[in-house]
Amino acid sequence: MTRIQHPLELLAPAKNADFGIEAIKHGADAVYIGGPAFGARYGAGNDVAEIRRLCDFAHRYRARVFVALNTILRDDELEDSRQLAWQLYEAGADALIIQDMGLLEMDLPPIQLHASTQTDNRNADKVKFLEDVGFSQVVLARECSLNEIIKIASQTNVSLEYFVHGALCVAFSGQCYISQAHTGRSANRGECSQACRLPYTLVDDKGKTITENQHLLSMKDNNQTENMLELARAGVCSFKIEGRLKDLSYVKNITAHYRGLLDEIIANNPEFTRASSGRSTYTFTPQPDKTFNRGYTDYFANDRQDDIGAFDSPSFVGELIGEVVDIGDGSFTVNAEKPFNNGDGVCFYDAHGEVVGMRINRADGKTLFPAEMPEELTAGATLFRNRDQEFERSLEKESADRRISVKPVLTETEDGFALTLTDEDGVIATVNRKNGPKSEWQLAQNPEAAMAKLTENLGKFGNTMFVAEPVELKLSQPWFMPVSAINALRREATEQLEAARIASHPRPPRATPAANPVPYPQEELTYLGNVFNAKARQFYEKHGVKLIEEAYEAGNEKGMVSLMITRHCLRYSFNLCPKEVKHLKPDPMTLINGNEKLILKFDCKACEMHVVGKMKKGVTLNLGSIRPAA
Fold first, then answer.
1. C-alpha angle 344-346-347 in degrees, rounded to nearest 5
2. Could you tell me which of 391, 432, 399 has the C-alpha nearest to residue 282?
3. Strands 319-327 and 382-387, how do they pair?
4. 3-state per-residue secondary structure call for 354-420
5. Integer Cα distance of 185 and 169 in angstroms
6. Whether the Cβ atoms of residue 272 and residue 5 lie closer than 8 Å to each other
7. For 315-396, CATH number?
8. Quick one: what percent of the chain has pLDDT higher than 70?
9. What pTM was computed for the model?
């Protein structure tokens, strides 16, 4: 009986085509990138020509390119988005990541559709519905636990994608309207103002202050390093790294880190296999702690737990390196075990709990000379390093090489010779050479040396994308050929093989919708359904929704509503959970930032916190066109 192998896909972010290419070099099986518009990340757009360049590179390795087309759309943007979908398909994109269901009512190209995390995918009923209407892959809510993933996987057949690293939105994705209400900038249209990273004071229903000036809606960063095997066994197919706005060193370091983890899982578990071709080698050792993070958490993967918030600071504090033991004139000494480098960035917390950073101009052993000595620095201060200059410089250079293994076989034919290259995917290229009277092929006078040189040069693939397995010679007798002729034969075969790989890239097919899809899980949709155009309304009506409210972005005053729904609970964080402390009740609380007040309401049955507020007076809705430039 043949064992079915399940591919495990490492999905990395790409701010632009160059970042995407580096992600693939560093081991990504797929990358996701924004197109020229509608990509849910302001400032991370790319023109179609750049998408095509990325696809051409990715497909050489059987890696895939997913393009985010995942904002909610106005009626007058639908046609532009449809045309863009066709342009992206023609450029070679392998899938579109979408949020707005209105697109499914239009003439889209035969390209895979992936349901964005913005579609709020946290239970089996929702995922089954998305599968039935034609989605091939569904991005699960970041809040999903391993047990919830197992349940979803057991009731569906669609590929499940899960965030394994990076920044965490505290709200269920697609269910956050604070930015829209306070600034007119819609998170569902890629312009979140990140109110969750602000400092707040928490007050209970009696007016008692629980805590002051803390970043109470700011989460630590996601890190599923310890859960990768369990996630794969639970049913996750695609392991997603957050970060389309992150810098290149982040993409390189974090992609290489998770590539190593997945390779180890695949090597030790025969039920899993790689999702693309080639193997990456690195000039550095991946270290996630060196890259921007707010501290790490595995969030709700192993159910609710303490210490998931980055309440002290939304900044990158870095690795703990020691204490300040002495302060001199323009310098200070640290009792650190690790060495320092000129250009390192270090920081500490001042007396008010604020992070104060400085750049080290010169490091003389454990004595550091900062560019500017902070007045707040005192002996005994705990010091952190948030920029390791040596590590960053190692990532500024070429830091990875990805090669596809190829088997060269030189065969003697009736009228000459044939070099056949067969790569790890079974793609074949053959080049023939006739051995006429004036041929460069001659019987070798020194057979042993000739065969050694032939083997050596047929296996040299230099700066190509290939690396040779042992060369096989199927010859009746030892032949001599000049090195230049051997190299020319190998180069021609290599060029043909590379062209054949690109031409034979297995573009994933569009899923066929079910003949009788299950109804949408709800018969009524409030503003939380994000229905922003007539096509989306038409879609939901067709699938059994009877009452549909317009999206919050439509701008009609809704009064006090949930501006954010989150599994993070401040009652739990401060040991005030009614489930944990029996005499307590889930009374409302208030978050205060300056003159801003947000009411917290607690749905203990669902184990959720609702951040309630209303549209600020004077806010102008920023719903200008996000269509691509002509």
1. 165
2. 399
3. antiparallel
4. CEEEEEEEEEECCEEEECCCCCCCCCCCEEEEEECHHHHHHHHCCCEEEEEEEEEEEEECCCEEEEE
5. 16
6. yes
7. 2.40.30.10
8. 96
9. 0.94
Which residues does 305 contact at the CB level (< 8 Å), separation at least 6? 297
Structure tokens at 587: 């009374």
- Smallest Cα–Cα separation from 180: which of 625, 613, 628? 613
Q: Is the pLDDT of residue 43 over 80?
A: no
Sequence spans of domains, the chain = 6-168+220-276+284-290, 315-396, 400-503
Say whether pLDDT at 132 is over 90: yes
Concatenating the DSSP letter of every residue in 544-589 gives: T--EEPPPGGG-----SEEEEEES--HHHHTT--TTTSTT-----E
User: pLDDT for 209-222, tens place per residue?
Assistant: 999 999 999 999 99
Chain centroid to Cα 459, Å, comes to: 36
CB-count exposure of residue 134 (10 Å: 0-12, 13-18, 19+): middle
Residue with tokens 């919830």: 148
DSSP 160-225: EEEEEEE---SSPTT-B-HHHHHHS--GGGT----GGGS-EEEE-TTS-EEEEEE-TTPBPEEE-G
DSSP characters over 48-100: HHHHHHHHHHHHTTT-EEEEEE-S---GGGHHHHHHHHHHHHHHT--EEEE--
Per DSSP bridges, beta strands 64-69 and 442-443 are unpaired
* Distance in angstroms (rounded) separating the CA atoms of residues 531 and 533: 6
> Which CATH superfamily is 6-168+220-276+284-290 part of?
Aldolase class I (3.20.20.70)
> What's the pLDDT tens digit per position in 259-268?
999 999 999 9
Task: Name which of 176, 249, 272, 274 is nearest 217 in CA terms.
Answer: 176
Q: Write the single-letter amino acid at 596.
A: E
